[in-house]
């Protein structure tokens, strides 16, 4: 049983700084946009490498609520623009039936008596 509603969230998970994608995810994006895999990799991702990580990360865009969000996030409607083609990491989030950010948001909206309230980043 799911205990959160993404439709009332301002896109917290889309603001994660590193949204890592697999080769399969890049191929899915390529098909979705009718591009080659290499074109999709170049256009939509960048290579991130440290001692701990070696990943392809989705590019971001500026956002008025969070500093930045996924490039595929509609910052006006606060929705994913590629929902059917979204990466596996997005499909699995929040890795269970409960989202901690949703619980926090729900509490703050009740406490502030404002159903539109969004905590500042």
Topology:
Layout: E1 20-21, H1 23-33, H2 37-44, E2 45-49, E3 54-58, E4 60-62, E5 68-70, E6 73-74, E7 79-80, H3 88-92, H4 100-112
Antiparallel strand pairs: 1-3, 2-3, 4-5, 6-7
Helix pairs in contact: 1-2
Question: In sequence order, what are the helices and strands, one letter per element?
Answer: EHHEEEEEEHH
Q: Outline, from the CA principal axes?
A: elongated
Helix amount: 25-40%
**Computed Rg:** 16 Å
Q: Within the largest sheet, what's the order of strands?
A: 1-3-2
Helix count equals 4
> How many individual β-strands?
7
Structural class by helix and strand composition: alpha+beta
- Rounded mean pLDDT is 88
Largest sheet entry: 3 strands, antiparallel
Strand content: 15-25%
Q: Any idea how many domains?
A: 1
Question: pLDDT under 50 segments (min length 5)?
Answer: none
- Calculate the terminal CA-CA distance, rounded to whole Å: 29 Å
Structure description:
- The structure is a single chain.
- With 121 residues, the chain is of the alpha+beta class.
- The protein has one domain.
- It has 4 helices and 7 strands, in the order βααββββββαα.
- The chain has helices spanning 23-33, 37-44, 88-92, 100-112, and strands spanning 20-21, 45-49, 54-58, 60-62, 68-70, 73-74, 79-80.
- The protein has a 3-stranded antiparallel β-sheet with strand order 1-3-2.
- The longest helix has 13 residues, at 100-112.
- It is elongated.
- The mean pLDDT is 88.
């Amino acid at each position: 049983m799911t205990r959160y509603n993404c439709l009332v969230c301002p896109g917290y998970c889309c603001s994660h700084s590193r949204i890592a994608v697999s080769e399969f995810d890049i191929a899915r994006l390529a098909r979705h946009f009718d591009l080659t895999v290499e074109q999709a990799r170049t256009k939509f991702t960048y290579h991130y490498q440290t001692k701990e990580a070696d990943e392809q990360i989705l590019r971001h865009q500026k956002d008025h609520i969070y500093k930045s969000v996924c490039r595929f996030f509609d910052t006006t409607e606060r929705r994913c623009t590629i929902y059917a083609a979204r990466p596996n990491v997005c499909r699995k989030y929040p890795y269970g039936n409960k989202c901690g950010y949703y619980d926090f948001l729900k509490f703050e909206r009740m406490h502030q008596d404002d159903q539109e309230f969004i905590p500042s980043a």
